[in-house]
Design goal:
Layout lengths: L1 H4 L21 E2 L6 E4 L13 H6 L11 E5 L16 E5 L3 H5 L2 E2 L13 E6 L24 E7 L4 E6 L7
Parallel strand pairs: 1-5
Antiparallel strand pairs: 2-3, 3-4, 4-6, 7-8
């Protein structure tokens, strides 16, 4: 009975199709990469028009430019941890178009200074600057950052926000 449910090509002896994937190295110097995700276009409805700051961040060349790539890494890139009890980590916004003309982007290990290089931007990190208490001191998550031991990035393009899966107590915690 089960065999009758299988597609006929499974028994036809056809070769498994193969595909070629053209790829290039966009950036190097990314420690402990855990997740990579293209930003993509956000829908024009939802919270985006009501938040001018967020709307501007989705424009070309900005942090959430649709063609940029968000990368979850296991480094704070020079910033001291906001809470040393939790894992460090950051989300970088990288412009893959920038690497085409200038070659591979070498990500500096210290992004705390403003060197004017817009190819690599620090979206968030487990540092004081990005702790939740900056926006809501009374929140249960006030001592946490948006990225702490980041593992995966998902983009909710309908409601306008990246979602970051974290392991603040480490991968075994």
């Amino acid at each position: 009975m089960l065999l009758s449910l299988l597609p006929s090509w499974a028994f036809a002896g056809d070769q498994t199709p193969d595909w070629r994937l053209n790829a290039r190295i966009v950036a190097v110097g990314l420690p402990d990469v855990a997740g990579v995700r293209e930003v993509g276009r956000f829908h024009v409805g939802g919270p985006i028009p009501g938040n001018p700051e967020f709307l501007m961040a989705t424009r070309e060349g900005r942090m959430l430019d649709p063609l940029r790539v968000l990368v979850a890494v296991g480094s704070n890139f020079g910033a001291p941890p906001g809470d040393p009890a939790f894992e460090v980590g950051a989300i970088l916004s990288i412009d893959p178009r920038a690497g085409k003309s200038g070659g591979t982007i070498v990500v500096p290990q210290d992004l705390t200074g403003n060197d004017g290089d817009a190819r690599v931007q620090l979206y968030t990190a487990q540092s004081e600057r990005f702790l939740n208490r900056r926006y809501n001191a009374g929140a249960r998550t006030a001592r946490l950052a948006a990225a702490s031991g980041p593992r995966y990035i998902s983009i909710n393009n309908a409601f306008g926000r990246p979602w970051i899966a974290n392991a603040p107590s480490g991968i075994n915690g």
